[in-house]
Protein backbone atom coordinates (compact mmCIF):
# COMPACT_ATOMS: atom_id res chain seq x y z
CA UNK A 1 0.00 0.00 0.00
CA UNK A 2 3.03 2.26 0.17
CA UNK A 3 3.36 4.69 -2.66
CA UNK A 4 6.14 4.61 -5.15
CA UNK A 5 8.29 7.74 -5.34
CA UNK A 6 7.16 10.35 -7.83
CA UNK A 7 8.31 9.06 -11.20
CA UNK A 8 10.92 11.32 -12.72
CA UNK A 9 11.00 11.73 -16.46
CA UNK A 10 13.80 10.40 -18.65
CA UNK A 11 16.11 13.25 -17.68
CA UNK A 12 15.34 12.86 -13.99
CA UNK A 13 13.28 15.99 -13.40
CA UNK A 14 10.93 16.22 -10.42
CA UNK A 15 7.31 16.73 -11.44
CA UNK A 16 6.19 19.53 -9.10
CA UNK A 17 2.52 18.87 -9.88
CA UNK A 18 2.41 16.04 -7.34
CA UNK A 19 4.05 17.79 -4.38
CA UNK A 20 1.56 18.67 -1.65
CA UNK A 21 2.05 21.54 0.80
CA UNK A 22 4.56 19.81 3.05
CA UNK A 23 6.54 18.25 0.22
CA UNK A 24 6.73 21.53 -1.67
CA UNK A 25 7.83 23.41 1.45
CA UNK A 26 10.56 20.84 2.04
CA UNK A 27 11.58 21.16 -1.60
CA UNK A 28 11.92 24.96 -1.28
CA UNK A 29 13.77 24.86 2.03
CA UNK A 30 16.23 22.27 0.71
CA UNK A 31 17.11 24.74 -2.03
CA UNK A 32 17.68 27.60 0.37
CA UNK A 33 14.32 29.27 -0.30
CA UNK A 34 11.78 30.45 2.28
CA UNK A 35 8.88 28.05 2.93
CA UNK A 36 6.62 30.84 1.68
CA UNK A 37 7.84 30.15 -1.86
CA UNK A 38 5.79 26.96 -1.70
CA UNK A 39 2.64 29.09 -1.39
CA UNK A 40 3.59 31.07 -4.47
CA UNK A 41 4.39 27.92 -6.38
CA UNK A 42 1.04 26.31 -5.51
CA UNK A 43 -0.76 29.48 -6.57
CA UNK A 44 1.00 29.51 -9.93
CA UNK A 45 0.72 25.80 -10.59
CA UNK A 46 -2.71 24.92 -9.26
CA UNK A 47 -4.73 28.10 -8.83
CA UNK A 48 -3.63 29.69 -12.08
CA UNK A 49 -2.72 26.56 -14.01
CA UNK A 50 0.61 27.94 -15.14
CA UNK A 51 3.09 25.36 -16.38
CA UNK A 52 5.84 27.71 -17.52
CA UNK A 53 8.37 28.75 -14.88
CA UNK A 54 9.38 31.87 -16.86
CA UNK A 55 5.95 33.33 -16.11
CA UNK A 56 6.34 32.96 -12.33
CA UNK A 57 7.62 36.49 -11.98
CA UNK A 58 7.45 36.80 -8.21
CA UNK A 59 10.13 34.11 -7.86
CA UNK A 60 13.76 35.15 -8.13
CA UNK A 61 15.50 34.61 -11.43
CA UNK A 62 18.00 32.23 -9.85
CA UNK A 63 15.24 30.11 -8.27
CA UNK A 64 13.41 30.02 -11.58
CA UNK A 65 16.60 28.88 -13.29
CA UNK A 66 16.93 26.07 -10.74
CA UNK A 67 13.31 25.06 -11.29
CA UNK A 68 13.78 24.95 -15.04
CA UNK A 69 16.88 22.84 -14.69
CA UNK A 70 15.65 20.31 -12.14
CA UNK A 71 11.87 20.26 -12.23
CA UNK A 72 8.90 20.27 -14.53
CA UNK A 73 5.13 20.60 -14.44
CA UNK A 74 3.98 17.65 -16.44
CA UNK A 75 0.25 16.86 -16.58
CA UNK A 76 -1.11 13.69 -18.15
CA UNK A 77 -1.76 14.20 -21.84
CA UNK A 78 -5.26 14.16 -23.34
CA UNK A 79 -5.35 11.60 -26.13
CA UNK A 80 -9.10 11.56 -26.63
CA UNK A 81 -12.02 13.77 -25.67
CA UNK A 82 -15.64 12.66 -25.96
CA UNK A 83 -18.69 14.77 -25.31
CA UNK A 84 -21.96 13.09 -24.34
CA UNK A 85 -25.34 14.37 -25.49
CA UNK A 86 -26.07 15.22 -21.83
CA UNK A 87 -23.00 17.44 -21.50
CA UNK A 88 -20.77 14.89 -19.79
CA UNK A 89 -17.21 15.03 -21.03
CA UNK A 90 -14.78 12.12 -20.89
CA UNK A 91 -11.05 12.42 -21.37
CA UNK A 92 -8.72 9.54 -22.03
CA UNK A 93 -5.38 10.51 -20.53
CA UNK A 94 -2.03 9.03 -21.37
CA UNK A 95 0.00 8.52 -18.21
CA UNK A 96 2.99 6.76 -19.73
CA UNK A 97 3.80 4.98 -22.97
CA UNK A 98 1.59 2.00 -22.18
CA UNK A 99 -1.10 3.22 -19.83
CA UNK A 100 -4.20 5.33 -20.12
CA UNK A 101 -6.82 6.30 -17.58
CA UNK A 102 -10.17 8.02 -17.87
CA UNK A 103 -11.51 11.16 -16.23
CA UNK A 104 -15.12 12.31 -16.47
CA UNK A 105 -16.63 15.77 -16.01
CA UNK A 106 -20.32 15.85 -15.07
CA UNK A 107 -21.91 19.31 -15.27
CA UNK A 108 -25.10 19.95 -13.29
CA UNK A 109 -27.13 23.07 -12.72
CA UNK A 110 -25.37 24.17 -9.55
CA UNK A 111 -22.13 22.26 -9.65
CA UNK A 112 -19.57 20.54 -11.81
CA UNK A 113 -18.24 17.19 -10.65
CA UNK A 114 -14.97 15.70 -11.80
CA UNK A 115 -14.69 11.93 -11.45
CA UNK A 116 -11.02 11.00 -11.27
CA UNK A 117 -9.06 7.77 -11.38
CA UNK A 118 -6.53 6.63 -8.79
CA UNK A 119 -5.01 3.55 -10.43
CA UNK A 120 -4.38 2.17 -13.90
CA UNK A 121 -6.95 -0.60 -13.86
CA UNK A 122 -8.06 -2.17 -10.60
CA UNK A 123 -7.03 -5.24 -8.65
CA UNK A 124 -10.31 -5.83 -6.86
CA UNK A 125 -12.29 -7.94 -9.33
CA UNK A 126 -15.79 -6.70 -8.44
CA UNK A 127 -17.94 -8.88 -10.65
CA UNK A 128 -20.10 -6.10 -12.17
CA UNK A 129 -17.39 -3.52 -12.96
CA UNK A 130 -15.75 -3.21 -16.35
CA UNK A 131 -12.60 -1.62 -14.91
CA UNK A 132 -12.06 -4.90 -13.03
CA UNK A 133 -12.01 -6.80 -16.31
CA UNK A 134 -8.99 -4.75 -17.39
CA UNK A 135 -6.81 -6.07 -14.62
CA UNK A 136 -4.41 -3.92 -12.63
CA UNK A 137 -1.21 -2.37 -13.80
CA UNK A 138 0.01 0.29 -11.39
CA UNK A 139 -0.82 3.05 -8.96
CA UNK A 140 -1.08 6.56 -10.33
CA UNK A 141 1.42 9.00 -8.88
CA UNK A 142 0.14 12.01 -6.93
CA UNK A 143 1.00 14.13 -9.99
CA UNK A 144 -1.11 11.89 -12.21
CA UNK A 145 -4.05 12.03 -9.81
CA UNK A 146 -4.06 15.80 -9.21
CA UNK A 147 -3.02 16.24 -12.86
CA UNK A 148 -6.54 15.14 -13.86
CA UNK A 149 -7.96 18.14 -11.99
CA UNK A 150 -5.23 20.40 -13.40
CA UNK A 151 -6.11 19.34 -16.94
CA UNK A 152 -9.87 19.71 -16.34
CA UNK A 153 -9.37 23.21 -14.98
CA UNK A 154 -7.20 24.11 -17.98
CA UNK A 155 -9.82 22.79 -20.40
CA UNK A 156 -12.93 24.12 -18.65
CA UNK A 157 -11.68 27.24 -16.90
CA UNK A 158 -11.36 28.04 -13.20
CA UNK A 159 -14.52 27.40 -11.19
CA UNK A 160 -15.97 24.76 -13.51
CA UNK A 161 -15.02 21.94 -11.14
CA UNK A 162 -16.77 22.44 -7.80
CA UNK A 163 -16.73 18.81 -6.66
CA UNK A 164 -14.32 15.93 -7.02
CA UNK A 165 -15.21 12.28 -6.64
CA UNK A 166 -12.53 9.60 -6.51
CA UNK A 167 -14.85 7.18 -8.30
CA UNK A 168 -13.02 6.58 -11.53
CA UNK A 169 -10.71 3.69 -12.21
CA UNK A 170 -9.03 1.98 -9.27
CA UNK A 171 -9.36 1.56 -5.52
CA UNK A 172 -8.12 4.82 -3.98
CA UNK A 173 -7.35 3.32 -0.58
CA UNK A 174 -4.93 0.86 -2.17
CA UNK A 175 -2.92 3.86 -3.40
CA UNK A 176 -3.08 5.60 -0.06
CA UNK A 177 -0.14 8.01 0.07
CA UNK A 178 -0.54 9.36 -3.44
CA UNK A 179 -4.29 9.77 -3.02
CA UNK A 180 -3.85 11.58 0.31
CA UNK A 181 -1.26 13.94 -1.24
CA UNK A 182 -3.67 14.72 -4.09
CA UNK A 183 -6.54 15.30 -1.65
CA UNK A 184 -4.30 17.65 0.31
CA UNK A 185 -3.92 19.79 -2.81
CA UNK A 186 -7.65 19.64 -3.58
CA UNK A 187 -8.48 21.10 -0.17
CA UNK A 188 -5.55 23.53 -0.02
CA UNK A 189 -6.64 27.18 -0.22
CA UNK A 190 -3.53 28.00 -2.24
CA UNK A 191 -4.23 25.18 -4.68
CA UNK A 192 -7.84 24.21 -5.50
CA UNK A 193 -9.54 25.26 -2.25
CA UNK A 194 -12.39 22.73 -2.39
CA UNK A 195 -14.32 22.13 0.81
CA UNK A 196 -13.96 18.71 2.43
CA UNK A 197 -17.67 18.07 1.79
CA UNK A 198 -17.12 18.49 -1.92
CA UNK A 199 -14.40 15.87 -2.17
CA UNK A 200 -15.62 12.28 -1.98
CA UNK A 201 -13.49 9.17 -1.88
CA UNK A 202 -15.24 6.00 -2.96
CA UNK A 203 -13.98 2.72 -1.58
CA UNK A 204 -14.91 -0.92 -1.75
CA UNK A 205 -14.00 -1.13 1.93
CA UNK A 206 -10.31 -1.51 2.69
CA UNK A 207 -10.91 -1.38 6.43
CA UNK A 208 -7.39 -0.67 7.83
CA UNK A 209 -6.85 2.09 5.26
CA UNK A 210 -10.19 3.63 6.24
CA UNK A 211 -8.89 4.14 9.74
CA UNK A 212 -5.66 5.61 8.38
CA UNK A 213 -7.70 7.99 6.27
CA UNK A 214 -9.74 9.09 9.28
CA UNK A 215 -6.48 10.05 10.99
CA UNK A 216 -5.40 12.41 8.21
CA UNK A 217 -8.49 13.62 6.40
CA UNK A 218 -12.10 14.64 6.71
CA UNK A 219 -13.22 14.14 3.14
CA UNK A 220 -16.60 12.56 2.49
CA UNK A 221 -16.68 8.85 1.99
CA UNK A 222 -18.73 6.69 -0.34
CA UNK A 223 -18.72 3.01 0.51
CA UNK A 224 -19.47 0.45 -2.18
CA UNK A 225 -21.59 -1.95 -0.17
CA UNK A 226 -23.79 -3.41 -2.94
CA UNK A 227 -25.06 -6.35 -0.84
CA UNK A 228 -26.68 -6.70 2.57
CA UNK A 229 -25.08 -10.01 3.56
CA UNK A 230 -21.59 -11.51 3.41
CA UNK A 231 -22.56 -14.48 1.26
CA UNK A 232 -23.72 -12.24 -1.57
CA UNK A 233 -21.12 -9.52 -1.06
CA UNK A 234 -18.33 -12.10 -1.21
CA UNK A 235 -19.34 -12.79 -4.80
CA UNK A 236 -19.97 -9.20 -5.91
CA UNK A 237 -17.16 -7.40 -4.05
CA UNK A 238 -14.56 -10.10 -3.29
CA UNK A 239 -12.57 -7.91 -0.88
CA UNK A 240 -15.47 -8.68 1.46
CA UNK A 241 -13.85 -12.07 2.10
CA UNK A 242 -11.06 -10.14 3.83
CA UNK A 243 -13.10 -7.36 5.43
CA UNK A 244 -16.66 -8.58 5.99
CA UNK A 245 -19.68 -6.33 6.36
CA UNK A 246 -19.70 -6.01 10.15
CA UNK A 247 -16.05 -4.88 10.13
CA UNK A 248 -16.74 -2.46 7.30
CA UNK A 249 -19.76 -0.94 9.06
CA UNK A 250 -17.79 -0.56 12.28
CA UNK A 251 -15.06 1.25 10.30
CA UNK A 252 -17.71 3.53 8.75
CA UNK A 253 -18.94 4.37 12.21
CA UNK A 254 -15.40 5.23 13.31
CA UNK A 255 -14.92 7.31 10.18
CA UNK A 256 -18.09 9.33 10.81
CA UNK A 257 -16.66 10.11 14.24
CA UNK A 258 -18.37 10.73 17.55
CA UNK A 259 -19.41 14.23 16.55
CA UNK A 260 -20.60 13.17 13.08
CA UNK A 261 -17.96 15.37 11.49
CA UNK A 262 -17.51 13.29 8.36
CA UNK A 263 -20.10 12.21 5.84
CA UNK A 264 -20.54 8.61 4.71
CA UNK A 265 -22.78 7.53 1.86
CA UNK A 266 -23.52 3.90 1.12
CA UNK A 267 -23.47 2.98 -2.56
CA UNK A 268 -25.63 0.12 -3.76
CA UNK A 269 -25.64 -0.97 -7.39
CA UNK A 270 -29.01 -2.29 -8.53
CA UNK A 271 -28.56 -5.67 -10.22
CA UNK A 272 -31.67 -7.32 -11.58
CA UNK A 273 -32.59 -10.45 -9.61
CA UNK A 274 -29.29 -10.42 -7.71
CA UNK A 275 -29.46 -7.92 -4.83
CA UNK A 276 -32.66 -5.98 -5.45
CA UNK A 277 -35.55 -7.75 -3.70
CA UNK A 278 -37.61 -6.27 -0.81
CA UNK A 279 -35.97 -8.88 1.45
CA UNK A 280 -32.54 -7.50 0.48
CA UNK A 281 -33.77 -3.98 1.25
CA UNK A 282 -35.00 -5.01 4.69
CA UNK A 283 -31.72 -6.78 5.38
CA UNK A 284 -29.88 -3.63 4.30
CA UNK A 285 -31.91 -1.58 6.78
CA UNK A 286 -30.66 -3.82 9.58
CA UNK A 287 -27.04 -3.55 8.40
CA UNK A 288 -27.19 0.22 8.12
CA UNK A 289 -28.60 0.69 11.59
CA UNK A 290 -24.99 0.13 12.76
CA UNK A 291 -23.74 3.31 11.09
CA UNK A 292 -26.17 6.11 10.20
CA UNK A 293 -25.60 7.04 6.60
CA UNK A 294 -27.29 8.09 3.40
CA UNK A 295 -27.87 5.57 0.65
CA UNK A 296 -27.20 6.13 -3.02
CA UNK A 297 -28.75 3.53 -5.32
CA UNK A 298 -26.79 3.19 -8.57
CA UNK A 299 -28.62 1.77 -11.58
CA UNK A 300 -26.27 -0.82 -13.06
CA UNK A 301 -24.53 0.45 -16.19
CA UNK A 302 -24.16 -2.40 -18.65
CA UNK A 303 -21.06 -3.25 -20.64
CA UNK A 304 -20.48 -6.07 -23.12
CA UNK A 305 -20.22 -9.48 -21.51
CA UNK A 306 -21.05 -8.25 -17.99
CA UNK A 307 -23.67 -10.95 -17.43
CA UNK A 308 -25.85 -8.55 -15.41
CA UNK A 309 -28.91 -6.43 -16.11
CA UNK A 310 -30.08 -3.31 -14.34
CA UNK A 311 -33.09 -3.65 -12.04
CA UNK A 312 -36.34 -2.21 -13.39
CA UNK A 313 -37.37 1.29 -12.47
CA UNK A 314 -40.22 -0.11 -10.34
CA UNK A 315 -37.88 -2.45 -8.48
CA UNK A 316 -35.49 0.41 -7.70
CA UNK A 317 -38.43 2.57 -6.57
CA UNK A 318 -39.72 -0.17 -4.24
CA UNK A 319 -36.23 -0.79 -2.84
CA UNK A 320 -35.79 2.94 -2.23
CA UNK A 321 -39.16 3.22 -0.46
CA UNK A 322 -38.31 0.47 2.01
CA UNK A 323 -35.10 2.31 2.95
CA UNK A 324 -36.86 5.65 3.19
CA UNK A 325 -39.66 4.26 5.33
CA UNK A 326 -36.97 2.99 7.69
CA UNK A 327 -35.63 6.53 7.94
CA UNK A 328 -32.66 6.47 5.56
CA UNK A 329 -32.21 9.34 3.15
CA UNK A 330 -32.07 7.50 -0.16
CA UNK A 331 -31.27 8.87 -3.58
CA UNK A 332 -31.01 7.15 -6.93
CA UNK A 333 -28.05 8.16 -9.02
CA UNK A 334 -28.91 9.62 -12.38
CA UNK A 335 -26.99 7.79 -15.06
CA UNK A 336 -24.93 10.27 -17.04
CA UNK A 337 -22.67 9.92 -20.03
CA UNK A 338 -23.53 6.30 -20.82
CA UNK A 339 -23.59 7.02 -24.57
CA UNK A 340 -19.82 7.59 -24.37
CA UNK A 341 -19.17 4.80 -21.84
CA UNK A 342 -18.48 7.37 -19.15
CA UNK A 343 -20.98 6.11 -16.55
CA UNK A 344 -20.03 4.39 -13.27
CA UNK A 345 -18.21 1.15 -13.84
CA UNK A 346 -17.72 1.76 -17.56
CA UNK A 347 -14.27 3.31 -17.40
CA UNK A 348 -11.61 1.16 -18.96
CA UNK A 349 -8.72 3.30 -20.20
CA UNK A 350 -5.91 1.15 -21.44
CA UNK A 351 -4.03 -1.20 -19.20
CA UNK A 352 -0.76 -2.78 -20.11
CA UNK A 353 -1.42 -6.25 -18.77
CA UNK A 354 -4.89 -6.58 -20.25
CA UNK A 355 -4.04 -9.69 -22.27
CA UNK A 356 -2.59 -11.49 -19.30
CA UNK A 357 -5.66 -10.75 -17.25
CA UNK A 358 -8.06 -11.81 -20.00
CA UNK A 359 -6.21 -15.10 -20.33
CA UNK A 360 -6.35 -15.58 -16.60
CA UNK A 361 -10.11 -14.96 -16.60
CA UNK A 362 -10.57 -17.34 -19.51
CA UNK A 363 -8.70 -20.16 -17.81
CA UNK A 364 -10.53 -19.51 -14.55
CA UNK A 365 -13.63 -20.38 -16.53
N1 LIG B 1 -12.93 1.21 -6.17
C1 LIG B 1 -13.78 2.24 -5.67
C2 LIG B 1 -14.09 3.37 -6.64
C3 LIG B 1 -14.42 3.06 -8.08
S1 LIG B 1 -16.00 2.61 -8.63
C4 LIG B 1 -15.05 1.61 -5.15
O1 LIG B 1 -15.22 0.41 -5.27
O2 LIG B 1 -15.87 2.32 -4.57
C5 LIG B 1 -17.18 3.80 -8.26
C6 LIG B 1 -18.56 3.19 -8.04
O3 LIG B 1 -19.15 2.64 -9.25
C7 LIG B 1 -18.49 2.03 -7.06
O4 LIG B 1 -19.55 2.09 -6.16
C8 LIG B 1 -18.64 0.85 -7.99
O5 LIG B 1 -19.03 -0.29 -7.30
C9 LIG B 1 -19.66 1.34 -8.97
N2 LIG B 1 -19.76 0.55 -10.18
C10 LIG B 1 -18.81 -0.27 -10.70
N3 LIG B 1 -19.29 -0.85 -11.83
C11 LIG B 1 -20.52 -0.38 -12.03
C12 LIG B 1 -21.49 -0.58 -13.06
N4 LIG B 1 -21.25 -1.35 -14.11
N5 LIG B 1 -22.66 0.08 -12.94
C13 LIG B 1 -22.89 0.91 -11.90
N6 LIG B 1 -22.01 1.15 -10.92
C14 LIG B 1 -20.84 0.51 -10.98
What does this structure look like?
The protein is an alpha/beta fold. It is 35% helix and 19% strand. It is built from 12 helices and 14 strands. The longest helix is centred in the middle third of the chain and has 15 residues, at 142-156. It is globular. The structure holds S-adenosyl-L-homocysteine (SAH).
Quick recap:
This protein has helices at 21-30, 36-47, 61-70, 130-133, 142-156, 176-187, 207-216, 230-236, 245-256, 278-288, 313-325, 354-364, and strands at 14-15, 71-72, 77-83, 89-96, 99-107, 112-115, 119-121, 136-139, 163-166, 199-203, 220-224, 264-270, 294-299, 330-332. It has 365 residues and is of the alpha/beta class.
Sum up the overall morphology in one term: globular
What is the chain-wise order of helices and strands? EHHHEEEEEEHEHEHEHEHHEHEHEH
Determine the mean pLDDT.
91
Biggest sheet: strands side by side, in what order? 3-4-5-6-9-10-11-12-13-14
Structural class: alpha/beta
Number of DSSP helices? 12
Distance between the termini: 30 Å
Query: What is the total tally of β strands?
Result: 14
Strand content: 15-25%
Ligand inventory reads:
S-adenosyl-L-homocysteine
> What composes the largest sheet?
10 strands, mixed
